[in-house]
Task: structure prediction
Amino acid sequence: MRRLRTAVLISGRGSNMQSLVADARDPAHPAEIVLVASNDPTCEGLKWARQEGLAVAGVDHRIHASREDFERVLNITLGIHRIELVCLAGFMRLLTPWFVKAWAGRLINIHPALLPSFRGLHTHARALAEGVKIHGCTVHYVVPAMDEGPIIAQAALPVRDDDTPDSLATRVLSLEHKLYPHALRLVAGGGVRVQENRTITGRDGREQETFIVPPLD
Amino acid sequence: MRRLRTAVLISGRGSNMQSLVADARDPAHPAEIVLVASNDPTCEGLKWARQEGLAVAGVDHRIHASREDFERVLNITLGIHRIELVCLAGFMRLLTPWFVKAWAGRLINIHPALLPSFRGLHTHARALAEGVKIHGCTVHYVVPAMDEGPIIAQAALPVRDDDTPDSLATRVLSLEHKLYPHALRLVAGGGVRVQENRTITGRDGREQETFIVPPLD
Result:
C-alpha cells in the first residue's frame, strides 16, 4: 500500500496536528504525514514536529507582500514535498479561492462546532450564548466560502449546566483529537465520495444510535 | 402532587401530541394533559384525542378575521380549561408577540432540527443539502422570534448515506417522540431554570458521552 503524502498546516500549538501525527505512526495508516508547515515560524507546533523528526516549514505570512505571494510560496513548499493531501489544523489564515481551488478535494479542515451552526470564530462562547445542549466539531473539505464545503464527519457532546467557553473548548478539543484522525483515515483510505454537497462514506452503523441531552433517566 | 394543567396545540395528525398524552397517562407525571386544541377542527389528531376521552377544541383560524382574533379565541379557550402550560406539537400557525408574551415561560415547542441550524420549514431536505452527518430535534421555550428561545433539550441521530428527506423525517420523528415527553417532564416538574438564553436542568450526566458520525471502528 502506498501511503498518501500528507501535510498539516498549523498556526500555534498544533494539538490537532499532534493527534494526526500520532495516529499516522501506524504503518497501516493510509496517510503518511511528511510535512508540518506554519505561517508562524516560531510557533510551538513546529518545534514539537521538529523534535519528532518531521520535516517542517515556516512560511511567515508577515514577510510576504500579499496573501497571494504568501500562498504561492506555501504552494511551492507543498510541491517540493510532493504533498497529495493537506490538513488544516488550527491554521489561522484565510485561504484565497486560487489556493483552495488548486487543492480542491485534497484539502480538509476541522471546525470546532456542528456546522452549519457557528461558522467563524468564538464558536464555544456563541454556542453557550445560544443555549445549545449539543455542541461538537466537524471535519469538512475546504471550499472558497469559509467553513463551508462537504462534511466528512461530525462529533457531538453534551453541553453542561456549568460550562464556560473555556471548559467547553477543552472538551470539544479532546473530541477533535478523536474525530480528525478518524476523518483523515476515511479520506486518505479513499473511502469518501462527494456527491454535490454530501459525502458518502459507506460506513453507516447498523444500530440506530441516538444522543439525548439532558440524558434520559 | 398537583399536576400542571397542560394543553397541546396541533394542526394535523398530532403524533407528538399522542406521545405526550401516552407518557402523561403515568399518574406520577408532573403534567396532566387536559386539552388538545387545533386550528383545524377536522384534523386527525383531534379525532384521536376525542376517542381517547380528552377534551378537544377546534378553533378554526379561517373563520376569524385576523390572526389576533383567532388567538384571542384560542386564549379564551385555554383560560376556560385553566391551562397552565402549552405544548406546540406540529401547530402550523405563527403566533403573534401578544400571544407569545402572554404565555412566556409556559409555552414550549418542538422543532425538527438541531437549533440554531435549520430554523423554519423543510429542515430535513435542507440538512441533506447541507450534507450534515448529525441531525436531530430540539424542544425550546417559545419567544416571538420563530424557532428561537431557550433550548430545553436536544436529541441527535446519524444521517445515513442513503437518507432522503422522507427517511430522515421518519427517524427524526421517532426521536421527537422520545424527546418531547422527556422535555415536558423536565419543564412540568419544575426542574428547568432559565438564565438569559440558557436553561439549567441539573441533570448533567456523570459520563462524558460523545457521538461520532460516521462511527469509529
Remarks:
- The mean pLDDT of chain A is 96.
